Amino acid sequence: MSDPELEAIRQQRLAQLQSQYKSNNADDKEAMEERKQQMEDMKNSILTQVLDQSARARLNTLCLGKPEKGRMVEEMLLSMAQRGQLSGKLGEKELISLLESINQQTKQKKTTVKFDRRRAALDSDDDTDL
Predict the structure, then answer these.
(1) Which parts form a coiled-coil structure per UniProt (predicted)?
(2) What is the pTM of this model?
(3) Of the candidates 76, 86, 75, which has an alpha carbon nearest to the alpha carbon of residue 49?
């Protein structure tokens, strides 16, 4: 085989491998998206079974305002439902009490700002020597 023929075969094989890789990669992404969608649907159906309509609306509002905290509460509710700790549907009042208990558990220390008046007293902004 001459060099041009060999180079043509290499290019053809490279193109074939690249197209194969792209199709496999696209299939993996589609499968991953599909699994993610199924998990989201399953989560939503469990939350619908566990919470009544007003509690679900409050949880959605919490997720919009504080997404990280909302996900934490959703995961807690899902685990409680899977362990059988929830009897019947939770109403809005029960969800509020659950949120209050979570707030007290995760409550961080209040931050205080100390203002050093001595340093401010040394500052000569009100000079009368103009």
Answers:
(1) none
(2) 0.58
(3) 86
